[in-house]
Design goal:
Elements lengths: L3 E10 L2 E11 L4 E5 L6 H8 L7 E6 L2 E2 L5 H11 E4 L11 H11 L4 H14 L15 H13 L5 E5 L7 H18 L2 E5 L3 H4 L4 E6 L2 E2 L7
Parallel strand pairs: 3-8, 3-9, 6-7, 7-8
Antiparallel strand pairs: 1-2, 1-4, 4-5, 9-10
Helix pairs in contact: 3-4, 3-5, 4-5, 5-6
The structure holds adenosine-5'-diphosphate (2 copies).
Length: about 220
């Protein structure tokens, strides 16, 4: 059984249609790039898959369970235990060091500081940013900050990482470095990645590409 299955998703904001029959299947461990022009519904699709936005109709099943049938508490618990998130920017807590940022999800899950920070340190090392562990997000480069964000998304061993334009604020060299490290780490841990991007060079790191146009997406519109 696939990990995530979205069927005939429809979502309208006021009179603006964001999704108009979108479909997507994500299998365990695969990296899927969701492509398409600005405003085509990519972010809304990702938010529906992650249970952040409820579609007007259609359904999302995660490991066989319909997200809309869960309570808000169950959905937020699922996001903490099974999902990781990377966004374009602004996701790190500015008052915390990079190490503390990566340790935070585990601290919130009740892990002891020492254990959480030891594991966070191994993830910073894996993402090739061990040297900035003690610095705050405002003191590091955009590419370093995104690698810290990737470490934080992966530290809880999620089954799915949702990444919305994770390289959107980076130059192409740093963007490709983030994508290489993200996809290598995901393949190592077996996490699936749902990657929203409008950049073909970023999508090239995926196993599969899906195109969204005017709120419609189909798995069969597979490009590779
Ligand atoms: P993309 O990620 O492809 O740029 P989005 O999913 O962000 O597309 O947006 C799809 C359409 O829905 C756009 O017209 C956008 O302006 C609109 N939209 C998205 N989110 C909201 C929202 N929270 N409120 C109102 N309109 C929204
Ligand atoms: P992206 O660049 O990933 O497409 P956007 O900048 O379109 O993302 O949207 C960022 C956030 O703002 C999202 O949570 C989206 O739902 C919301 N949003 C997008 N378009 C609108 C809109 N027209 N009105 C209100 N909120 C919107």
């Amino acid at each position: 059984e696939p990990l995530l299955v979205a069927t005939d998703l429809r979502k309208t904001y006021g009179r603006t249609p964001a999704l108009d029959g979108a479909e997507l299947t994500v299998r365990a461990g695969e990296v899927v790039a969701v492509m398409g022009p600005s405003g085509s519904g990519k972010s809304t699709l990702l938010h529906c898959l992650a249970g952040i936005v409820t579609p007007d109709s259609g359904e999302v099943r995660y490991r066989g369970r319909q997200l809309s049938a869960m309570s808000d508490g169950e959905r937020s618990a699922l996001r903490r235990t099974d999902f990781g998130f990377v966004f374009q920017f602004g996701q790190l807590v500015p008052e915390l060091t990079c190490l503390e940022n990566v340790a935070m999800p585990m601290r919130l899950a009740g892990r002891r500081r020492k254990d959480a920070e030891a594991l966070a340190a191994t993830w910073l090392d894996r993402l090739e940013v061990a040297d900035i562990a003690g610095q705050r997000p405002g003191e590091v480069s955009g590419g370093q900050g995104q690698r810290v964000a990737v470490a934080r998304a992966l530290v809880g061993d999620p089954r799915v990482v949702f990444a919305d334009e994770p390289t959107g604020a980076l130059d192409s060299l740093n963007g490709e470095r983030v994508m290489r490290l993200l996809t290598e780490a995901a393949h190592d841990t077996g996490a699936a990645v749902v990657l929203v991007t409008h950049e073909p060079r970023v999508a090239a790191y995926s196993d599969r590409e899906i195109v969204v146009r005017d709120g419609k997406s189909r798995d069969m519109e597979r490009v590779s």
